[in-house]
Amino acid sequence: MNSGGDITQLLQAARKGDASAESQLLEAIYGELRKLAASHMRRERYDHTLQPSALVNEAYMQLFTGHQTDWQSRAQFYAAAGITMRRLLIGHARERLALKRGGGWQKVDVSTTALYVEDHPEQWIALENCLSKLETIDARQGEVVNLRFFCGLSVEETAAAMDISEKTVKRDWAMARAWLQGELENEQ
Fold first, then answer.
1. Which of 27-31, 40-44, 87-91 has the lowest average pLDDT?
2. Which of 77, 85, 96, 129 lies at 20 to 30 Å from 117 by C-alpha?
3. Three-class SS of residue 163?
4. What does the DSSP 8-state code read for residue 113?
């Protein structure tokens, strides 16, 4: 496995159009992206039509086409990848919900354990709406939720990725979870 610095250099070179670097980058990060996608997919229903490999490919394409991002670190890239995967799954849930033409909202419990929404895409949409609202109120708390919940980072990894203390991560995580729980209960 390449070190974080090597991956950062490959990210920057690939962004500048170096085809060789892009090939090396994909080889270096694909395994981690696949693990991240599998983590997201464990929260989905068992018969989900989107597979982890397809989720990785879609996220990779979105991250490397259309807009120029100068990745400053490996952690920044993986955080962006996790958020992109989350948004892809939300889009998929919205499409599925549109096909179902609605239904009653289900209570969503936000806790330190994984959120299981299996056959209720409306739960993902409710969570996405509440998280978007949180991000406008407190961007740092929103980023903590994205990194901890959607990217599966530990408190230590989140602190390092955001360049803040572990104590701040724990406090923001607790406050964000409580706020999201209240908002989700109000959605019902």
1. 40-44
2. 77
3. coil
4. S
